[in-house]
Amino acid sequence: MDKILELKNLKKHYAIHGGVLRREIGAVRALDGIDLDIYRGECLGVVGESGCGKTTAGKAVVRLFKPTSGHIYYYPADAASKAMADLACVTKSRIKKLGLRNRLQMVFQDPTTSLDPRMLVKNIVAEPIKTLQQMSGRDLENRVLNLLERVGLTRDHLLRYPHEFSGGQRQRIAVARAIATDPEFIVLDEPTSALDVSVQSQILNLLQSLQRTLQLTYMFVTHHLLVVKYISDRVAVMYLGKIVELADTDGIFSRPLHPYTHALLSAIPIPDVTHMPQRIVLSGDVPDPSDPPPGCRFHTRCPFAVERCRAEEPLLDVVETGHRVACHRKHEVEKLVAETFGSS
Length: 344
Ligand SMILES: Nc1ncnc2c1ncn2[C@@H]1O[C@H](COP(=O)(O)OP(=O)(O)OP(=O)(O)O)[C@@H](O)[C@H]1O
Ligand code: SF4
Ligand SMILES: [Mg+2]
Description:
Rossmann fold, 2 domains, three-stranded antiparallel sheet, 13 helices, binds adenosine-5'-triphosphate, binds iron/sulfur cluster, binds magnesium ion
């Protein structure tokens, strides 16, 4: 499979300011060294507890801000496996020149806040095309209508404001705006979490069908494991700014090899997961990301932590083809889970 994006040791630290002079006194290490290849045409799910850095990872990849360090290599479809300049380093003017805002898009969780309430739908959808693709007049009108129809809306919706729509329809508008510039890659940040359960599957189906017809690549950020199981080809599990397990969806759900992944899966009822009879209940809160624990960041909550875990950081090693795990005890985890927690 062709790579579309390659992240190397990607970091984003948010400065913490304190004291009367508001000096920098520390940093939230929201994203703390991510290595990840994203393949053209796949849907990569990103899961983890609140605050583990999922949104930060998505925003960094589409360059909504400049990462603190690391590299983002982007391989456009039209460049025959040749990486564009390192996106982690490019300037705002170069982002514009390379058309990155056309190519890499993001859809946010809450369409109520991501859509301007004072703008008509036709202008919301037209805005990126006007500014990024310099289209106008009849061409622009036809394009907007075509986009609305693609997401299941009609001509009747063109002259309405966002508050005149349901939550699901508003998310459809946000999706129409995201695909307006013919992107190759879209970060979907909890795109169904703010919606009524009955509407969630409609939006998921819409996203899947658009992915197929427009040959899109998705990074699908969510804390909802059943959604990720349904929509993703591969899954990256994040903990405190790091990826701790990465595998195809079946590998994550049928053979999780990181204690944290086991714990996440234990927390939800998944009727058709075949090899997950045990339950690990996580104790304690996620540690402070401005002062992560040394060694393995999960050691303060891991039931299998040993001395080495407190001293040495585990690398994201390959366990089998396509399955990577960051745990010193990765080869013992299945046995440890069975011995410690038994079958339910
Ligand atoms: N602009 C910011 N300034 C300072 N800290 C931030 C900023 N944005 C995020 N953070 C912090 O970075 C860490 C990661 O946040 P992020 O929003 O990426 O997490 P998340 O995994 O998306 O969480 P959630 O599931 O709640 O959306 C958190 O500790 C958060 O408080
Ligand atoms: S490295 Fe140690 S603390 Fe970390 S997940 Fe593995 S067993 Fe647990
Ligand atoms: Mg988030």
